[in-house]
Amino acid sequence: MSTGVEACFVVRRPAFTLDVALSAAPGEVLAVLGPNGAGKSTLLGVLAGLLRPDEGSVRVGERVVTDTAAGVHVPPHLRGVGLLAQQALLFPHLTARDNIAFGPRAHGVPRREARARADELLAGVDATALGDRRPSQMSGGQQQRVALARALAPEPGLLLLDEPLAALDVDATPAMRGLLRRVIREAKQTAVLVTHSALDALVLADRVVVLTAGRVVEEGPVREVLARPRSAFTARIAGLDLVPGVRDGAGLRTPDGLLVSGRAEGVEPGEAAVAVFPPSAVAVHATRPTGSPRNVLPVRLAAIEPRGDVVRLRAGAVPGGPVWVEGLAADVTPAAVADLAVEPGDDLWFAVKATEVAIHAAG
């Protein structure tokens, strides 16, 4: 039976501290996003019982599985927690059916009942034909389907998904993503999903938390967080440009005093804020544009990135210019790049109309 989870704990390391509080309601999928080193794997390790926090507690359903003050630490195999990792990690000597039946059997379920459960789950993940195959006889995508069924077989109250699509090839990923969504929704399974992909979060999750340097810096419904990012990392994965600063009467004032004009949304003058706009709204010029009321930023071209029908021009800072332009992107047509005749190291101007810029509170 699916249950909720509540966790509030601290893990201290010599050069890093993870200090988080999060929860997921029964049947809810919570995505955890963040850059490398943010603490995502450590978070999953504590929830799974593989790591003991220095202080704090974890509750799965009505059961406290970690409480440092009370000396409680339920071992991983007794927590009612399932794990689906990047690699399937199936037992190589067992068939798909026996891999799936292993969990229920370890919990004392009779062999016939465990195998019936395995067959039911094989059908649920569209892998009935794989029942008698060993892992060496399956593709990576097929192994991950079986691994999902194995994680669900003991009917965990909480399912942990550790970048489950990261190791799949580009052809297998969409099918597995759709399968995960269907299976988790049909089972009303509570899950915590660690991912680097905004698409995975949008398709699979109800809510998202964003970790940076061991702290939760953003949280909320997935679409809301990705549409209104408050950190550079979230803006990057959402495909948006972000400029930090302070709300000014006419827009946003950057740390070096430049005014970025835009539409302010729920932020008062003097408050920390961010200006956000899509790369497609950025016009690129070889010389400073004049005439229209735009935000005009001097940049040095750092990279040229082909992206299907458009080319993304990635900005670096001009010596003596604003450093916060580093990483900003402009999406232009291949013809525009040819007309500009630019290459990395050239100085350019990024221009954005005020109507394309949204200004809202920073995290």
Automatic annotation (TrEMBL):
GO cellular component terms listed in the entry, alphabetical order: membrane
An example Gene Ontology biological process: molybdate ion transport
Domain of life of the organism encoding this protein: Bacteria
Keywords per UniProt: ATP-binding, Cell membrane, Ion transport, Iron, Iron transport, Membrane, Molybdenum, Nucleotide-binding, Transport
Mop domain mapped to chain residues: 290-361
SMART domains: AAA
Molecular function terms from GO: ABC-type ferric iron transporter activity; ATP binding; ATP hydrolysis activity
Domain spans labelled ABC transporter: 2-238
Entries under CDD domains matching the protein: ABC_Carb_Solutes_like
Pfam families the record matches: ABC_tran, TOBE
The protein, known as: ATP-binding cassette domain-containing protein
Lineage: Bacteria, Bacillati, Actinomycetota, Actinomycetes, Pseudonocardiales
